[in-house]
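lol forgot to send this yesterday, sorry. struct tokens for the thing we talked abt
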């Protein structure tokens, strides 16, 4: 695992833990249900962790090119490079 992937993994795991702690602190009973946005964010975090594990992290899922250091530092769970992201239709 390269240094960027290792840093991203640490950050993603911290964010995942933080989200979990908001709705079920310290493994206790759930205080509230996850919002749709929180479920989506957890899904994106888990997908990024899977890409790190399988070695595909850092490659755009649209064009296959490397996403670049700055893109991954800004959005470690990104699936697409800036160019492809700008061409994608926003979710409805």
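and heres what i got for the seq, position by position
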């Amino acid at each position: 695992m390269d240094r960027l992937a290792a840093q991203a993994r640490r950050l993603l795991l911290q964010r995942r833990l933080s989200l979990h702690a908001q709705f079920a602190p310290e493994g206790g009973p759930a205080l509230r249900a996850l919002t749709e946005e929180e479920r989506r964010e957890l899904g994106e975090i888990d997908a990024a962790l899977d890409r790190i594990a399988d070695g595909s992290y850092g490659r755009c899922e649209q064009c296959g090119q490397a996403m670049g250091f700055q893109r991954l530092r800004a959005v470690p769970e990104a699936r697409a490079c800036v160019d492809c992201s700008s061409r994608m239709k926003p979710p409805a």
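The radius of gyration is 15 Å. anyway ping me if u want another try
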